[in-house]
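Both lines are given unchanged directly below:

***
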Amino acid sequence: MSSRWVNTKWRQGAICENSVLEEILPEDIRYKGYKAFIAISHDCDIGNYDLKKEPFVEFLPANFLDKADGNYLNGKNPRILHLPVLKNDVETFVEIKAPARFNIEKENLVSINPNENYSVDDSNKKMLQDWLAARYRRHALPGELVRLLKKEGFWKKLTEENSAQRSRFIKQFRLHFEPNGDLQTDERYEIKLLVIHDGTKESRINAEETVFDLKKAAEKLQHIDLSNCMARSTSEVTMDDLEYYEKLNLDYLSHKFDYSDDTQDY
């Protein structure tokens, strides 16, 4: 196995059309009419030829789209992603659904290669990785807190309006809130929010403007205290901050703009 697998062309983001994999697909996948499949295992796991450690490559079914739906772009929806891919260097889109993932044994892929006419560029591969991870790491806010934040247009300002104006300058939103549940009589949610930027002058200005706008919008919210909202650069964020503040799953904001300079493989 090792000598046959070491030069494999399979990588994360590699695409293979249905007809090539049809005979080795799981029974519950084979007859559902999917047009293609995309490998989602990490490159290091795919490249590991020790079958005792990494016996499978994980895939998601994919269907080609005539047009992407904005609700499913940039990792916005944790269950469905409309992923930009290149076919002969021309952009198209595939739809993938996180719950549909399945495994194929590496032994069965040895003599099969992905279709090299398809590729996923670095920025969209990074976005795919974040979308896959966010399904497991996203923080579940109490339903009552979500309902309160959506009043007076606050949530729209945090997501849509910020996305349109400033998301290329903001690396992350992180928050801490108390109480961690629904409110009791006469209580309010105390929210601490970090708007994290990369430290450049332009990014700092945009992050500080975002803080100002969010605080102003939050003044209209009942049962919400957002007075503790601040901008910090990545160099100012500490390990204590990362443990105390939860990452707010708004990755799709920054994925509206290409980035690959912070992509690293471990």
